[in-house]
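Q: Start with the shorter request: fold the first protein.
A: Done. Sequence, then structure:
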Amino acid sequence: MGNNTEKMKGLMVLIWITNLLHLSMAIWLNLPKSGTKCVSEEIHPNVVVLADYYVISDEHTSQEPTISLKVTSPFGNNLHQSGNVTHGQFAFTTHEAGNYLACLWVDGNSPKSSEVSVNLDWRTGVAAKDWDLVARKEKIEGIELELRKLEGAVEAIHENLLYLKTKEAEMRTLSEITNARVALCSIMSLALCITVSGLQLLYLKRYFHKKKLI
């Protein structure tokens, strides 16, 4: 009975990890005629990002609305930019940790309409990997391919945990530095108040002696 329970738990873990392989951030955006909409995701370094986007138009006209898109890194570097398009794709590998931003807007020469709907399929890490290409290149299939996918998912989870651990250490160090600076500032403020009070007492004492009040 115990062995069956352990097997069931193991199977549930494998199913859960397998589901991670199919996770991607599919977003439906309604772009106004004027203005920009942006989406962002916090990603750590050395992660592959792949995204597809396309305009969904309900108006059956000869001229479909077109959009422009710009993707920037946390430091403001331009990673991808396109204009006057109805669909497209971009891919890059992250080099620094932080929020990666994708901004979309409707081109000015598009047909008049209230809003333009855009589907953005944003995939990172294991979800962005071309497993069909891996299978053909390494000549693997079936269970062996699924095990490779599971291995990739486990590695991605491990890297995310290490990244979170690093961020936690950085936040803890920043908190300790801030607390030390606040304590130093408090001590300096107290010392300044004591010094000013002492000087005021000395001044008043000399003033009263000069006026022969004491």
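Q: Next, the second protein, separately.
A: Sequence, then structure:
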Amino acid sequence: HSLETVCRDFIQALDDCHLNFVAKMTGGCNRQKNELNACLRKERVARHDKNREASKVRRAKQEAAIRAFYD
């Protein structure tokens, strides 16, 4: 799944708010922007954790291969 599908509602809410120029310029869309940022952050943290775990697995395989090569 991509960020666009996960945070689609937040993106749409911010886009809708930005149609009102006065709200856009006076901070009327700050709540929608903060909600979108929170959603994007949550997805980024989840992606980071997943990548970190995959990296640990790859590193363990590399170390095992190196040990096997030198033994």
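Q: Describe the second briefly.
A: The chain has four helices and no strands. The chain has a mean pLDDT of 93.
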